[in-house]
Every structure is written in C-alpha cells, then in structure tokens.
Specification:
Length: 431
C-alpha cells in the first residue's frame, strides 16, 4: 500500500491511526449529514448500553450504608466505565453539576477520550448520549433521573482511587478519578475560553456516615478543593497553559458530597474540625493516588503504581521507542522486520521504505523525544479487532522541533507489542 498524505503528516497506511484527527476545538461542528448520522448512532448505541456489560464491586465501609460498582461496556472498540454508588434511602447531596439533590445514587461516567471527543464535537449528540446513560442508570436503581448526582470524565475508571479515613464515630470515603496532563490550570491566572463545558477531569465523590447540614455539605466542597490543590502542589503538576506556574486544578473538575443518615449531626466541616480533617486527608490521598495511576505524577521517592493498563502502556511504549531508535539509525530493513506481520501484509517492502523515507525527509537527525499520550482501543478501521495502542511522542529533530510522531502498536498473538503504523505531523503543536 502506498504512503497516504493526511494534511501535513505522512502515514504508512490509510488507516486512522491519528488520535488527534478530530479537531481539538470543542466548538467545531460536523456537517448536517454527519450530525444526523451521529445522533442516530448515539440513539442506536444508548438503546442497548448497559446490557452487554461487566460489573465489578467497589468495597465500601459498612457504616456508610451504600453500595458501589463499576459497570464496563464497549463501543466500537472503545471502553465506557461507569461508577455507580447507590443508597437504600434518599440522601441529601450536593453536586457541582446539579446543585442540591435528594439522591438515591451518585454516578461518575467515564468514557474513552476518543469517544468523548467524538460526542463533544456536537453538543446535541452529547446531550442525547448522556441523558440516555443517566436514564438507564436511574431505571436500574428504580428511581428518577432527578435523584441522581452525576459527573463525567475521560479518565480510566481502572485508575479509580478509593480512600477511607475514620476517627471515633466518623467515617469518610473519597472516590476519585483524575487526569491533569492536558487540562491543568492555575485559577486566577490562566485564561478561560469556553462558555460551557460538561465533563470533569479531577472528579471527587465524597461519602460520609455523618448527617451533614446543608451548610456543612456546601462547605465540604471548599475542604475537598483545598485538599485537591495541596495534592497538585505536592505532585508539582504544572499548568497546561502557563508552564512556569503551579496548577490549582483542571478547568473541568467536579465534586459530589453525599450526607449520611445514621451518624452524628455535623454543621461544620472546615479544617479545624475532626471531620474536616478526615475529609481533607481522604481527598488529598485519593487525588495523589488517582493522578499517580492515570498520569504517573508521583510524590518524591514514591514508587510508580502498577495496573493492567500501566503494564500495557509500558510494554507498548518500550516497543515503539525501540522501533523508533531503529528508524533514527536509518535501518529501514530492521524497521520492516521488527514491525507487526499485520503491517507487512498491508504494504510492499518498497512502499514501506518510500513512506518512511518521505516521512523523515528534510528533518535531519533525531535529537530527542518524550512520550505524550497513549490511547488503548480494540478496533481500528481497516484492521482486524485486537489490542491496539495509539501512541504519541513529541520529538525534536536537527532541523525541526515540537513535531508529533504517532504510532499504532498492536499486541500480536505472541503477546509482544509491535508497530502497525507510523506517521509524523509536520504542523506546529497547538498545545
């Protein structure tokens, strides 16, 4: 297969291996026909969502009188994972999405970044999609949509952090998902560019057995936010927009606080109170863990978290980096031999050499590169289903800087990750 030009980058195949092929601008709109097709796809999908699923329980302390599980589905090879916490009776809660809620359940819906980008490109499609998801969860809990406190994210629920703190009669549990690589900002300094946004990046769900007054429920958001910012500071997470300053959060964070019904009555949850201390410590530790799992942000001296996803990511990146090193040395024959057999079946050796040579023309020697993003998927147009990883590197060459190299890696039948496709974007990076 001949090399295919896509705008300003060259791909070895015509397959969609570019995780950034959809516009980064949330205001971008599809054509009328594409919007209609997307809406139909959403309706078809959500009509069967949450049926073919896997469930895993999330243990919670007994005195919280709540149950939690993660429900996992797949759409077009991309995961959806929903944390659902349910209560045997109505609870007073506050959500930064809905405000005060008489809640029978709390929901953190996670969707693969490519799915999120796909749906967010048309807000009508997004509204239909998320309303149907929440409606199905409400029916599952035998309640109404207005009795759910909700939030959403593109962080992988595999990296969910659950931290419990107890003292005397008080129990506090924080359930946190988080990502801060591309959306972190410093409030009060960085510029806001969007009027509305509808998903969260560091999401904190706080449960307690204490019976909180409305004032205490609202004040808990402050305590949780202070703990989150302290965690970002200790992890030294920079703003994604002003690289020289410390991030205080991301631009799309959400919080849900749910009062208990059986514990002591509480009217103050600031840091001077014992329960405020528990809330702060639970939220802090959970944010540290979630960002460590999702992004690899670690406290000084801390060991990296090991998850199934992190092991796959590490193996895929190591394989890709070794292959790129071969390419940097100009060893096209070795690059051909090291690629997946699937790649070699889709093109001739001559086309392979021509495409690789063209992709690097005029760039000079490779000087340095750093890993940027990884997106797992089980389905890519034109390729058989399997375990794939879409990888990005920000690279510097002798004659050009800040180029994006993209690799599609596949876990072959022998368990080894190998390169299926390669492209290099010659545009200047936008972020």
């Amino acid at each position: 297969m001949e090399a295919t030009r896509h705008g300003s980058h060259t791909s070895l195949t015509g397959n969609c291996s570019d995780p950034s092929s959809t516009s980064r601008d949330p205001g971008t709109r599809f054509s009328v026909f594409a919007r209609r097709a997307l809406l139909l796809a959403v309706l078809n999908f959500v009509s069967t969502a949450l049926l073919a699923e896997e469930r895993s329980a999330v243990p919670l302390p007994a005195n919280l009188a709540a149950s939690a599980q993660v429900i996992e589905n797949e759409r077009d090879g991309l995961w959806e994972k929903t944390l659902v916490v349910s209560f045997p009776e109505a609870r007073r809660a506050i959500s930064t999405q809905e405000g005060f809620v008489i809640a029978r359940g709390a929901v953190n819906h996670a969707m693969h970044p490519l799915l999120s980008r796909h749906f967010m490109s048309d807000m009508r499609a997004w509204d239909v999609y998320i309303d149907r998801i929440h409606g199905k969860i409400a029916r599952r809990l035998k309640t109404q949509r207005r009795h759910l406190a909700t939030m959403g994210t593109s962080a992988d629920m595999e990296n969910l952090a659950v931290v419990t703190k107890e003292y005397g009669p008080f129990t506090v549990t924080a359930l946190v998902t988080g990502g801060a690589e591309t959306n972190a900002l410093r409030t009060g300094l960085d510029e806001g560019t969007h009027i509305e946004t509808s998903h969260g990046t560091i999401n904190i769900l706080l449960l307690t057995n204490a019976r909180l007054s409305d004032g205490a429920i609202a004040r808990a958001i402050i305590t949780v936010t202070e703990a989150k910012t302290a965690a970002l500071e200790d992890l030294k997470v920079p703003s994604s927009y002003t690289k020289s300053v410390q991030a205080t959060g991301t631009g799309t964070d959400d919080v849900i606080v749910v009062s208990g019904t059986r514990g002591p009555r509480v009217t103050y949850v600031g840091g001077h109170s014992r329960i405020g201390e528990l809330i702060g410590k639970a939220a802090y530790d959970a944010v540290i863990e979630a960002l460590g799992k999702q992004n690899g942000f670690l406290l000084p001296g801390a060991e990296a978290y090991v998850t199934k996803g992190s092991l796959k990511k590490q193996a895929a990146f190591e394989s890709a980096e070794k292959w790129l090193s071969t390419l940097d040395d100009g060893e096209l024959a070795a690059a051909w031999d090291a690629a997946s057999a699937l790649a070699r079946r889709t093109k001739t050796r001559e086309a392979w050499d021509e495409a690789l040579t063209q992709s690097r023309a005029g760039l000079g020697k490779a000087i340095a590169r750093k890993t940027s993003r990884n997106l797992p998927t089980r389905a890519i147009d034109g390729l058989p289903r399997g375990e794939y990883m879409l990888l990005e590197f920000v690279s510097r060459f002798e004659n050009r800087e800040d180029l994006v190299e993209r690799i599609t890696a596949r876990q072959d039948e022998d368990g080894i990750w190998r390169v299926v496709d390669y492209s290099i974007d010659r545009q200047e990076r936008e972020d």
